[in-house]
């Protein structure tokens, strides 16, 4: 069934969009990521303009993340104190990222920036996660292997410490705030929840347990992406409501299923699967940038 999307100005199959939303919702529940790193590139691939894809995908991220968060709240695997610190940084970052996004849009460079940002961030994070997760999986299968103890690093020496009881941490509020701010900037520029950056940072930098990381990440993602959606709608008018509704319907259902699957898997297995997914998306976007397009020129209508 073909539907015309008024803001994106393209016709697309409604069931395809429902399937994309369901897939990303599944990943949101399993890995604690908003899924924007996947849904936004997928929207590129099916013909949605990058500016509309970035602005609209944040709607789907809010819905699927909220659906998955409900499951994690029932299992008490959400650190609300940590999530609040991350959120405060994320709101600041979203405002800064929106300023940069609008400036680049005015210069006509926003499409290239979005795609290059995906290649750089996805490639770096995916490779690091894959190497670490494979090493952890190998260690866990050795006879008599013990779980790797948390090591203290420079984060634990910073001032302004508070206790995060659910995570079992006593660390400074500044590193989580900066992690949240970085994710907020990415949310505005790339149309992502930032989970693919935040989840590794929470595990490897802050030292949080993987099961707590997933639910806490979703808590922060909901508010930051909701704020980013509002900013895009007010400043750019690039949020396509019809597209957003179809993605949301699929995402809510997929998120519940993903949360159940994720609860039955080991932490190392979850991280390996997420790393492979991140690298796969990175490779596809890089390939699109390198290959010669079918049409070298595109004429856009000039607003009256």
Automatic annotation (TrEMBL):
<feature type="transmembrane region" description="Helical">
    <location>
        <begin position="80"/>
        <end position="104"/>
    </location>
</feature>
<dbReference type="InterPro" id="IPR002781">
    <property type="entry name" value="TM_pro_TauE-like"/>
</dbReference>
<dbReference type="Pfam" id="PF01925">
    <property type="entry name" value="TauE"/>
</dbReference>
<keyword id="KW-1003">Cell membrane</keyword>
<feature type="transmembrane region" description="Helical">
    <location>
        <begin position="213"/>
        <end position="235"/>
    </location>
</feature>
<keyword id="KW-1133">Transmembrane helix</keyword>
<dbReference type="GO" id="GO:0005886">
    <property type="term" value="C:plasma membrane"/>
</dbReference>
<feature type="transmembrane region" description="Helical">
    <location>
        <begin position="116"/>
        <end position="138"/>
    </location>
</feature>
<feature type="transmembrane region" description="Helical">
    <location>
        <begin position="12"/>
        <end position="31"/>
    </location>
</feature>
<feature type="transmembrane region" description="Helical">
    <location>
        <begin position="271"/>
        <end position="291"/>
    </location>
</feature>
<feature type="transmembrane region" description="Helical">
    <location>
        <begin position="241"/>
        <end position="259"/>
    </location>
</feature>
<protein>
    <recommendedName>
        <fullName>Probable membrane transporter protein</fullName>
    </recommendedName>
</protein>
<dbReference type="InterPro" id="IPR051598">
    <property type="entry name" value="TSUP/Inactive_protease-like"/>
</dbReference>
<feature type="transmembrane region" description="Helical">
    <location>
        <begin position="37"/>
        <end position="59"/>
    </location>
</feature>
<keyword id="KW-0812">Transmembrane</keyword>
<feature type="transmembrane region" description="Helical">
    <location>
        <begin position="185"/>
        <end position="206"/>
    </location>
</feature>
<keyword id="KW-0472">Membrane</keyword>
<comment type="similarity">
    <text>Belongs to the 4-toluene sulfonate uptake permease (TSUP) (TC 2.A.102) family.</text>
</comment>
